[in-house]
Amino acid sequence: MFGQLPSTLQNSGDLVMLDLSGNHFSGSVLTWIGDKLSSLVILSLRSNNFDGHIPHKICDLQFLQNLDLGHNNISGVIPKCFRNLLTGNIPDNIGNMELMESLDLSMNRLNGEIPPSFSNLNFLNHFNVSYNNLTGQIPISTQL
């Protein structure tokens, strides 16, 4: 599927899981998701062509347990309501985001090592992973 998210989804207020991953949707992640789909527990928009920022209205999804926006063109800050509650490992392929200038993953529940691909982030000028459970060495590069 392609284009913007269908507005008819706004009529699905009792929807618990919405997985639209692996399509060609584009445009911004729409703010009405937080208003109209208030029962969502799982929202996966992974591997599309979304751009812009994560709308703060996503914070209104009180039951949301799993949010996957990976492999899109989303930029900007992560809404404070997440209190950056990220868990798991930093993805091994994070170094593919070669133009990234700033990354703050502090105060989360990240574990494992900082991937070696971080050495590919030549434009990175701000990097903070404090207050996590990371282990191992910081990869060697000109920026880190």
TrEMBL record:
Gene3D superfamilies: Ribonuclease Inhibitor
Membrane topology label: Single-pass type I membrane protein
Keywords, comma-separated and alphabetical: Glycoprotein, Membrane, Receptor, Signal, Transmembrane, Transmembrane helix
Domain of life: Eukaryota
GO cellular component, one term: membrane
InterPro entries linked to this entry: Leu-rich_rpt (IPR001611), LRR_dom_sf (IPR032675), RLP23-like (IPR046956)
Bilayer-crossing regions: none
Cellular localisation: Membrane
Xref: SUPFAM superfamilies: L domain-like
One Pfam family linked to the record: LRR_1
UniProt keyword annotation of Glycoprotein present: yes
Protein name per UniProt: DNA damage-repair/toleration protein DRT100-like
Organism: Gossypium hirsutum (Upland cotton)
Lineage of the organism: Eukaryota, Viridiplantae, Streptophyta, Embryophyta, Tracheophyta
Gene: LOC107954277
